[in-house]
Amino acid sequence: MMPTETSSLSRGEMLKRLRAEHGESVERTQQLLREQKRVQQEVCKSIREKAKTVPEIAEELGMKPADVLWYLASFRKYGLVVEEGMCGDYPLYRKAEEK
Amino acid sequence: MTKIHVDALVVGGGIAGMQTALDLGDQGYQVALVEKEPSVGGKMITLSKVFPTLDCCSCITTPKMSAVAHHPKIQLFTYCEVDRVDGQDGEFTVSVVQKPRYVNADICTGCRLCEYECPITVPSMFDRGLGSYHAVRVPFSTAVPQIAVLDIEYCLLCGKCEKVCPVGAVDFTQTPETFEIDTTSIVLATGFEMTDVSAKKEYGAGRLSNVIDPLMMERFLAPTGPYGRVLRPGDGMEPTTIAYVQCAGSRDETLGIEYCSRTCCMYAIKQSMLISGALPLAEVTIFYMDIRTFGKGYEQFYQNAKAMGVEFVRGKVASIQEDENHYPIVRVELTEEGRVVERTFDLVVLSLGMVLGDPLARFGLQPAEDGFASLPSVNASPWATTRPGVFVAGTAGGPMDIVDSIVTASAAASAASAYIRSKTQVSIEEGEVAYV
Amino acid sequence: MSEKPKIGVYTCYCGGNISHTVKCEQVAKVMADQPDVVISRTNMSLCSDAGQSQIEEDIRELGVNRVVIGACAPSLHEPTFRNTVVRAGLNPYLYHHVGLREQDSWVHSCDCDGATCKAVRLMSAGVAKARFLDPLEPIRLEAEKQALVIGGGVAGLRSALDIANQGLRVVLVEKSPFLGGRMAQLAKVFPTGEEAQRLLSELIDEVVQHPRIGVFIQTEVVGVSGYVGKYGIDLLQHGRGVTAENGEALAAGCTQFVPDEFNYNLTERKVIYKPYQGCYPALPAVDWDHYDGESILLNGKKEVLQDQAQPYQLTVGAIVVATGFDPYTPHTGEYGYGELPQVATLAELIRHLAVHPEAKSLRWNGRIVRDVVMVHCVGSREIEGVDALQEDGLVNNYCSRVCCTATLHMIEELHTHFPGLNIFDLYQDIRTYGRGHEEYYRSALSSGTRFVRYNGEDRPEVIAALEGDTHPVLVHVKDALTYNQELEIPADLVVLATGMQPRQIDDLVRMLKVSRGNDRFLLEVHPKLRPVETAVNGVILAGTAQGPMNIQESILAASAAAAKVVSLLGSGQVELQPFVAAVNAAKCDGTGACVEACEYEGAIALETLVENGKEVKRAVVTAANCSGCGACVSVCPNRAIDVQGWTLAQYEAMVDAIAMDIVDLVEAE
């Protein structure tokens, strides 16, 4: 690995500069975060008591099934959601037990 | 500016580049291996199992990844891009840009605490956008090096990762750094990309949610895939009827890609077999014009797939549309029956072809008509580009599968080694052939 | 054993390959309770860098001094993990590998509980053995920095040149009297249209002028002994029969003609001959197989020629097998071949055109050809139960790779030289896969070639036409492109695109102890991990001896082979595994039973030693010659011999562990 030379600017100055340079992406990401938090809350609420399929959740929350699946895949990866059996051709998802 | 001297620079840390670097390193040459992604492994590390042996891909790739990282003769530079190649004839100066990881690579232990703490979820390119990871992450579980990288385009600059890191590795002061590598020879192993799915309007131009590319299917079949199983991305259904559309992006004059991509027949057949294993009730249909299973053991592989019940239908797929429930409808001209039919599937895989990955211009090379590196004497020195001292390994020199990539990689190593010896004062043990 | 064993046990998921069947966590838990085990872990992919780092960390942090890994077959990753433990400062032989994938999960995929029990037994045995592991040192031997390349075709030439250009010495051996192999029989080569013989002669010039390459022509390998780094090779070089002074004159005076196999017997040549103008060496040679022994008139004197064969011996560190292929020869009657003179192979047509370069029209068997039928996949992609068996009782069920492009290339040549020909192309799948190959397909389509797709289970038939018919032969074929319509195509010439066959090199295969695959071509260790190496250390494959390839692919394989030879021999040393017999002199009585049982020359012998003033005989092992087969171990009445790394004590511990009652252990979980 190349020893990355750090900038001569201090950390504070660099963060300030990064904020200025990436203002647009930071703002966009903040919006995205709000959206992700909202979806996470809604999905987790929806499947807290009862395991559901992607189309069921999508219909309930008025979302595109593909988007629901993407979120579920992510929640599964980071341990928020577990798979729990099948309903026909669709796997069921349920909120994971709190650790 | 930091400057490094090596005998060989290998550009690209996919399977071809790793093999070339290992072969040259094993012969005692100093090698620099430059990879633009944060981890080596290339396309191959994203695959599930590989034909014709059906070895799990990790079992073949990860030890090579580990070997390049630990090899005493190989210096590994990840997350670095070659900017320019100056010089000629065995005296090259290559300027390389180290992109900022915003993580101090020397002290990061790969513990992933930053990743777990990061609040923002972004589509994982390792999973072709179908899975996810956080804005700061170790790129994938078997990544080499096991070092986090921060995606500044999705960073909130909230500093949570910085606080949680036990060794203080998060570093927002990093900036792109240019360094130079002096080298005698260069091996290009920059690889391929899949043909552009959006170019083919007739097949939905990438907008149909249950029409996917083959690398997505590889991820579904891999144990570390985004869903942990095979589901169609449109709505999470376990598919029962699956179609493969061959030559979707190759042998197609309308796309300007007239060549055969060599790998698509075999990966489609392989995936069909793996799907049959993962989903015993699934029915797989492959629409093809010619089945090109030409490699060693490949024809038998094809015959096995037929015997396993994979349906091979000779026909040119004219278009793919979807019904109101997003089930893809394949309209196909059955060339053996002389009629056009429409069949609905749960999931369709487009057997996309290969195009050149990284542009060649910064290496001072002109592409051939097909876009890949021009190789002026394929029947004498099929590794030689138009620039002396610059060699090609793997798919930068045209579409090919993993087996062929590995052989070309070793061949390129051989050529580079001979070239280095001819250009430098290697103490050659001269002598007559000895026989008693 | 000096230190107390601290065993680290690692059970790999193998990305699901093992964990889908074997309950790895349970196995790990049981192993954790075994005596001397200090840590027992599982991992998704132990061979990954992260997995290896974990093992290294445990050796460093926990003082693990024996490592047991349950994963894929040892053939795949034993070397990987040996390097891992070495990096952490442990002797590489203090690690034992248990094959949980090939020996367990893959063969018991329907029985998870059974497979888990078996895994526990296998791992317990591994742990039991690990307690008895001793540090070992690999056997380091001087390696001869010289390689033998067998075969003087394009692959052998390229391989020799690349090895020599990387600093090693090479002996190139060619059986026939001329270099160049099969490639010399071609005319223009795809996809560049270059002349094959010109490309070859450039390569041959480089090889024969190279100071580090010695070339033996008309030479056979008749004996192979030794091992990697030091193979003893016996060569037999046949006499050329002529000298530089009298060669041309003898050839001129020679009156005995034989069929010329260079032209597939389409023409005749003298028994003192050169295959083509520009061949190497330029000196004629005597064809000893056909020379009738009659005298030849030279300057008024009668000369009788004799093959004065000369033996040579040499020592090489590695051997490259570049023996090439044979073109498939159809059986008599297969598509009318050998019975109907209008049926020829593609290789024959190439020679025919080369022999008649000035021809204004295509003539075959004395007749102008207007309608040509090309048939693909002759002797390739054969189906058991449909196609006739080959001599060895198998069918050629592989694709020969080159024939599609070669056929379409020929179609382009024919259209260029003989405009107005009608050409039918009977194929199953057109496999113009290479760069620039698809253009020959498009060219054939645009030149009006009529493509007919046949089904491999219903191959075309070639029959003689009735006397007085417009054409001499008729081809019957069902065209899958037009609803299996039955076609009868009258033809003046039928060209069979014959594939590649493995060469008859049985003696060599036996001498080298290499294996063949199901397709009877020589077998590599693994198509991705070691694609040009054989299971015999130091024996490397180049070109079509391994399977069908075109010229470009042969060259690539040959250069890859060169890279492996140089990696192996470049340092002047090779390392062999230390798994060889070792004699405990204190227990040896000198019975000599071991010497009798040993099948390897120079591996074990009785030596006279002086012990307590008395002369005694004791067995002594020469490690480099020992294969570690264990025959001596089993016959020794005193248990005085062990194979290092696989000692009797280790085996007994493993057997005890395997037989242990584990059912309770597993069910209790």
Could you walk me through the main structural features you see in this protein, from its secondary elements to its overall organization?
The complex is a heterotrimer of chains A (99), B (436) and C (669). With 99 residues, chain A is an alpha+beta fold. Chain A has a single domain, classed as Winged helix-like DNA-binding domain superfamily/Winged helix DNA-binding domain (Arc Repressor Mutant, subunit A). Chain A contains 4 helices and 2 strands, in the order ααααββ. In chain A, β1 and β2 form a beta hairpin. In chain A, α2 packs across α4 (65-77). The two termini of chain A are 38 Å apart. The model of chain A has no long low-confidence stretch (mean pLDDT 89). Chain B has 436 residues and is of the alpha/beta class. Chain B has 2 domains: 3-99 and 176-191 and 357-423, 3-Layer(bba) Sandwich (FAD/NAD(P)-binding domain), CATH 3.50.50; 196-354, FAD/NAD(P)-binding domain. Chain B has 8 helices and 22 strands. Chain B has helices at 15-26, 57-70, 113-117, 160-164, 214-221, 264-278, 298-307, 402-423, and strands spanning 3-11, 31-34, 49-50, 55-56, 74-77, 80-88, 91-98, 121-124, 131-134, 136-137, 149-150, 177-188, 192-194, 211-212, 241-245, 283-288, 311-322, 328-334, 339-344, 347-350, 354-356, 390-392. In chain B, the strands form 6 sheets. In chain B, strands 1, 2, 5, 6, 7, 12 and 22 form a 7-stranded mixed β-sheet that branches. In chain B, β15 (241-245), α6 (264-278) and β16 form a beta-alpha-beta unit. In chain B, α6 runs parallel beside α7 (298-307). Chain B starts with a strand and ends in a 13-residue tail after the last helix. In chain B, 62% of the residues are buried. Chain C folds into 4 domains: 1-138, Rossmann fold; 146-238 and 309-324 and 503-573, FAD/NAD(P)-binding domain (3-Layer(bba) Sandwich); 247-303, no CATH class; 327-501, 3-Layer(bba) Sandwich (FAD/NAD(P)-binding domain). Helices cover 27% and strands 26% of the residues of chain C. In chain C, the strands form 14 sheets. Chain C has a 5-stranded parallel β-sheet, with helices on one face. In chain C, strands 22-31-25-26-27 form a 5-stranded parallel β-sheet. Chains in contact: A-B, B-C. At the B-C interface, β4, α2, α7 and α8 of B face α2, α3, β7, α7 and β19 of C.
